[in-house]
Amino acid sequence: MGKCYLNTIGIALLWAIMLNQVLAVPAANVKSAVNRAETSTKVKENLVLPYLFSTDTMGVNLGVGGMLSGYYQEQMTIGGTVFGGEVSRGIGGGVWNYKLPKTERFFLSVYGMLGYYPQQKAYAGSTDEYIPYDRPLPGSNGSSNEQFLQADGASNWFDIKLEYALPFGATKESGRVEYQIENGLLVSAPSGGEEWNPLSSGATVLVLRQFNRYQSFEFEEDTLDGAIHALELGILYDNTDFPINPSYGSSQYLSISHDSAWLESDHEWTFINLDMSKYFSLGSSDYASQRVIALNFWTGYSPSWALEYDELGGRRVIGNAPYNEGATLGGFYRMRGFDQSRFHDKAAIYGTAEYRYTFKANPVEDINWLRFLRLDWFQLVGFVEAGRVAPSFKASELFSDIKYDFGVSLRALMAGLVVRSDIAHSEEGTNLWIMVDHPF
């Protein structure tokens, strides 16, 4: 979907929340119920918004979306959206964090989206194509940003996720953690961060996710398409004070994903993922209610990834995850100065630092017609990122010819959701991304 030049609160809250679930890492999160002091008698939230957005490939689109939170269970959200343009169209919806009946710790999420998009771009080649030995593989660290496939086509996905909150730490008594906030800041006891000990601090969550993807590229002479049907097993230890907007503490997520080439999946592949974050609070100041330094490190490796050669020395990749899964950099979450899924290979390494400055002033607080947004604060963020993909998990490769970008972000806490608008610049251009949640 690429670069975004015009957007609204509607698309940020409703369409981006759908994309957030399929693109975000980690797949697990702490189950929580957030009660605002400003609406202490109302734990239920609802929002219906029309929206308008335009991108460089999709043109102008109109849509409408809605969400309900806390209506059946306090931690549960139901949402959906539909949009359309001259060529593009999409519909999606889901249920998140539904606690299974007669259980206290099992939570089920089911969500998906069907869409058709003009001029989809993939930094990849045909799976049957052998790349000459004197040309870099599409999407590799040394590849050109002119090496891509682009055509109209479908992009559909569907996920089922089962999470289990382990019975110790912050979730010892209940699978859900209760938070009280005032002006968007935590005023109740933090769920973690004072010590690193899963048995007494923070929340540990196991996740089993079955995810499905289908994408097609409709060229004049042919149609290329592919599908995956994969499983992910992961464990998250979130030892932050307030997972929705951490100010101190840390989190770690380890997972393994596997596609056994069942149904119409293209081929078998495996991917291992490690994601770690650390947060340092610098306290408040004259104009800031919070000042936080946030650090993130991520690495991934695909043991099934291999090269196959032809008689002329050309090669193609086999046993790999698709270009937009696995060891991938670029886009909403990692290396925001580059296009979505710009880089991908057997292994990847990534690091970023953010300085998050939350303003005390809230210029929309007294605007009556905007109160339905439940907007608690604005946050200004500066960030730098560095990352590299490589055909092996060797330090000599991963720490050479590293890619960099930097940028600024404006974020807001609305109805318990962090909504962000990131501008990032790299050697390949400048991108604007609208998304839900902090990138980590």
Descriptive overview:
The structure is a single chain. The chain is mostly beta strands and 440 residues long. It has helices spanning 9-23, 395-398; strands at 4-6, 32-36, 45-55, 59-69, 77-85, 89-99, 106-122, 149-165, 177-182, 185-186, 203-218, 223-240, 249-260, 268-281, 288-301, 306-309, 315-318, 327-329, 343-345, 347-359, 375-390, 403-414, 417-426, 429-436. The chain has a 17-stranded antiparallel β-sheet. A three-stranded mixed β-sheet has the order 2-9-10, with no helix packed on it. Strands 16-17 form a two-stranded antiparallel sheet. Strand 9 (177-182) and strand 10 (185-186) form a beta hairpin. The protein is globular.
Please give a handful of descriptors for the protein shown.
440 residues; 17-stranded antiparallel sheet; 2 helices; globular; disordered N terminus
DSSP strand content: over 45%
Number of helices: 2
List SSEs in N-to-C order: EHEEEEEEEEEEEEEEEEEEEEHEEE
Q: What is the rounded Rg?
A: 21 Å
Residue-averaged pLDDT: 89
Distance between the termini: 21 Å
- Uncertain spans: 1-15
Helical fraction equals under 10%
Q: What composes the largest sheet?
A: 17 strands, antiparallel
Outline type: globular
| SS class | mainly beta
Topology, number of strands = 24
List the helices and strands and how they pair.
Blueprint: E1 4-6, H1 9-23, E2 32-36, E3 45-55, E4 59-69, E5 77-85, E6 89-99, E7 106-122, E8 149-165, E9 177-182, E10 185-186, E11 203-218, E12 223-240, E13 249-260, E14 268-281, E15 288-301, E16 306-309, E17 315-318, E18 327-329, E19 343-345, E20 347-359, E21 375-390, H2 395-398, E22 403-414, E23 417-426, E24 429-436
Parallel strand pairs: 2-9
Antiparallel strand pairs: 1-3, 3-4, 4-5, 5-6, 6-7, 7-8, 8-11, 9-10, 11-12, 12-13, 13-14, 14-15, 15-20, 16-17, 18-19, 20-21, 21-22, 22-23, 23-24
